[in-house]
Design brief:
The chain has three domains: 77-217, 3-Layer(aba) Sandwich (Rossmann fold); 225-297, Helicase, Ruva Protein, domain 3, CATH 1.10.8.60; 312-355. Helices cover 36% and strands 8% of the residues. The chain has 13 helices and seven strands. Strands 2-3-6-1-7 form a five-stranded parallel beta sheet. The longest helix is centred in the middle third of the chain and has 15 residues, at 232-246. The chain is globular and about 70 Å long.
Length: 363
């Protein structure tokens, strides 16, 4: 069985009822891939171990899994790019599960979900009394992940003032807990993920250039669901089976019309959005046929998604940044950014502070 067919085995007879549904064909081997990018990776199919939760047969997904097989046995850091809901955490798990650290901890932390004032303590730990409310010593995620893997999700949300400490532990494998002078040594493989454009953030001065290069050792890009539409019937089939069993339902059929709509929808929330939609559909299906609320999927169709409209504040920030770059970050004088923008230097200084723009890019 192909690595990308995992999770599809039905326990309810579900699979046999889809002969009229246009599911993607079976895996035909590496000759189906015509991209030159594949020539640098193994030409055999990704093997089964470690890909149990990743579903699909598309060429775009198989390319990613081959890259996973290449980098997993090494101890190098990996930076996973991808939109929200594409399964970046599953890819990180697959890398860990296929590495020599597979029997060690896999610790994850969502950097966007933790307030910036608490993130340092969460990552590096703290001593008793290090700050108000620190009533006992607490190990950080780096300590918990020692000899294992630490997954930093949404690494682009780490505050600029904390990035230097993160860089140090990545390079020197050492750090101090908050409130302690004792240096801790750790052996951790770091896998980072983001939906942000870190390279653009470096240019804007909101992400350290040296940290970007340290994380960007082996980049992986997880394709959005709209770029692998042929996988949608397989994913739908898997989630219908999963939620049918969980809710003690017996969903035996999906109409061709329903599958066509699901396949042609753009899914801006990617696999996560599709998963939640299928769960809702199973709830609404008292009989043996899936009753999906297709009227909810009339706003976006595949391959027509447009870039989001920038807010006025974002447009102003980009305009000010452009003027600062063109003036080599000089604000005053006849060739400074203030003159280019047609405003007083004091006014520009106020706008820079209000827009959260650093005076100079962080290197």
């Amino acid at each position: 069985m192909s690595a990308v067919e995992f999770g599809l085995a039905s326990q309810t007879g579900f699979a046999e009822t889809f002969s009229d549904i246009p599911f993607a064909g079976t895996y035909k081997g590496t000759e189906a891939l015509d991209s030159s990018e594949d020539t640098n990776y193994p030409t055999d199919e990704p093997s089964e171990l470690g890909f149990e939760q990743i579903i699909g047969r598309s060429a775009a997904l198989r390319r990613v899994l081959r890259q996973v097989e290449v980098v997993a046995p090494t101890d190098s850091g990996v930076l996973i790019h991808g939109e929200t809901g594409t399964g970046k955490e599953l890819i990180a798990h697959a890398i860990h599960n296929r590495s020599a650290r597979r029997d060690r901890p896999f610790i994850k932390v969502n950097c966007a979900a933790i307030p910036s004032g608490l993130l340092e303590s969460e990552l590096f730990g703290h001593e008793k009394g290090a700050f108000t409310g620190a009533i006992m010593r607490k190990p950080g995620r780096f300590e918990l992940a020692d000899k294992g893997t630490l997954f930093l999700d949404e690494v682009g949300d780490i505050p600029l003032d904390l990035q230097a400490k993160l860089l140090r532990v990545l390079q020197e494998h050492e750090f101090e807990r908050l409130g302690s002078t004792r240096t801790q040594q750790v052996d951790v493989r770091v896998i980072a993920a983001t939906h942000r454009d870190l390279k653009q953030m470096v240019e804007e001065g909101t992400f350290r250039r040296d940290l970007y290069y340290r994380l960007h050792v082996f980049p992986l890009t997880v394709p959005p669901l709209r770029d692998r539409c042929e996988d949608i019937p397989l994913i739908v089939r898997h989630f219908v089976d999963k939620y049918s069993q969980r809710m003690s339902r017996l969903i035996e059929t999906i109409s061709v019309r329903t599958m066509e709509v699901l396949t042609n929808y753009a899914w801006p929330g990617n696999v996560r959005e599709l998963q939640n939609f299928i769960e809702r559909s199973v709830i609404l299906s008292p009989g043996t046929s899936l009753r999906a609320p297709l009227e909810e999927l009339t706003q976006e169709t595949v391959h027509v998604a447009q870039p989001p409209l920038s807010t006025l504040e974002e447009m102003e920030r980009n305009h000010v940044l452009r003027a600062l770059k063109e003036s080599n970050w000089v604000t005053g004088g006849p060739k400074g950014a203030a003159a280019k923008l047609g405003m007083k230097r004091t006014t520009l200084a106020y706008r820079i502070r209000k827009l959260g723009i650093p005076v100079r890019p962080q290197l």
